[in-house]
Amino acid sequence: MRIGIGVQALINHHGRGIEKYIQYFLKALAKIDSINEYVLLQEDTELEGNIFQGNFLPQSYHISARNYPRGLRWLWEYISLPREFKYFKLDLYHSMDLGIPRYGRGVYLATVHDILPYLYPQTCQISPQQLFKYRLKLWSLKRADHIIAISEYTKNDLVVKLGLSARRITVIPYGIADIFHPIDIRESRRVIKDKFKIEYPYILYVGAFGPTKNISVLLRSFRHVVDRFPNYRLVLIGSQKHPNYNQLIILSQNLGIEGKLTWIDSLEHKDLVSLYSAAHLFVFPSLLEGFGLPPLEAMACGAPVIASKAVSLPEVVGGAGILVDSRNVDDLSQSIIKVLSSDTMRLKMKVRGLKQAAQFSWGENARKTLGIYQKILENIKKDRYNAIN
């Protein structure tokens, strides 16, 4: 088979879960499949110079990039992709983040991470122009021969909200990278103290700071936690470029907890593993997620997890952590206090979390996706044979 894979999200979603999905999936796919040919397609030559950055891709992948004007790049999938399909003699094209041509022949598969911007445009802070482009991508899914959803929650949205057939959708969840595993606590604490000046113990959050992440409720909940556990810090890791960040700083000052917070803008993966491994508790109160990688990474490193019971997070956390109504300050703060009050509970949550995280594998993700490729093409061959005979 010669398979095209659309990887434009490596730039469009830099630093986000979709970027990690593409990187880890391609690495896992290369390990299990040395027979088929893969062509990575992208509408921007910027990617061609950076795609091997960090050596995350084997040199065996062929890369094709087209230099579309910045304002017209979103049209690439609708105009140029059918020509690329024909030029490279592809058997199948897999879009890593929506985007199927509206016209032209070809066999198309799309991964859908979520459709939250369509369902909650105001909450996701998406402009009318962005929403129009996004809706075009969603409408194009009707032409897909098959769809991969990263969670049952996303699959349900596709069926209920967009009216797509459940038979055409397969759920293949994210995996967990090998780097995320428990490491020596004493070494973790040393690294954390030397690099980030963080005194133990602490509660950890990793993710964005937008309104959907619900950090304001986390800060208000932590204000109650500090009354019971004054020696604890709250460490928040995420990009400080988000416009909501300054509002959160002001809120922390109004709550009188600014001295108990540590904000970290960016860090290396190995340092993130140290922070996960040494955390007394990881809290993820997000209201909208297609999947939710940070709780999975935290569990894989042995951190007890409290997460929102909304959207896809129960699928990720399962029975290993505590699921709460994260809109409710009292519910969240009391759950945090309950976990911090019991070493036995934290140990049990750690053990359950490690077991839960072990169920998610990028190797399994790649194997299932490769199986979808084969199944789609086999079914098409059968349909063509039956049509002739």
Question: What can you tell me about this protein's structure?
Answer:
This protein has 389 residues and is α/β, with parallel strands linked by helices. The protein folds into two domains: 2-175 and 362-388, 3-Layer(aba) Sandwich (Rossmann fold), CATH 3.40.50; 185-357, 3-Layer(aba) Sandwich (Rossmann fold). The chain contains 17 helices and 13 strands. Strand 6, helix 8 (152-160) and strand 7 (169-171) form a beta-alpha-beta unit. It is elongated, with a radius of gyration of 22 Å.
* Low-pLDDT residue intervals, each spanning 5 or more residues: none
- Whole-angstrom Rg: 22 Å
CATH superfamily of the largest domain: Glycogen Phosphorylase B
Order of helices and strands: EHHEHEHHEEHHEHEHEHEHEHEHEHEHHH
Please specify the SSE layout and strand pairing.
Blueprint: E1 2-6, H1 9-12, H2 17-32, E2 37-42, H3 46-50, E3 62-65, H4 76-79, H5 81-87, E4 92-95, E5 108-112, H6 116-119, H7 128-140, E6 146-149, H8 152-160, E7 169-171, H9 185-196, E8 202-206, H10 215-228, E9 233-237, H11 244-255, E10 261-264, H12 269-278, E11 281-284, H13 293-300, E12 305-308, H14 313-317, E13 322-324, H15 329-340, H16 343-357, H17 362-388
Parallel strand pairs: 1-2, 1-4, 2-3, 4-5, 5-6, 6-7, 8-9, 8-11, 9-10, 11-12, 12-13
Helix pairs in contact: 2-17, 9-12, 10-11, 10-15, 13-16
Brief description of this entry?
The chain has 389 residues and is of the alpha/beta class. It folds into two domains: 2-175 and 362-388, Rossmann fold, CATH 3.40.50.2000; 185-357, 3-Layer(aba) Sandwich (Rossmann fold), CATH 3.40.50.2000. It has helices at residues 9-12, 17-32, 46-50, 76-79, 81-87, 116-119, 128-140, 152-160, 185-196, 215-228, 244-255, 269-278, 293-300, 313-317, 329-340, 343-357, 362-388, and strands at residues 2-6, 37-42, 62-65, 92-95, 108-112, 146-149, 169-171, 202-206, 233-237, 261-264, 281-284, 305-308, 322-324.
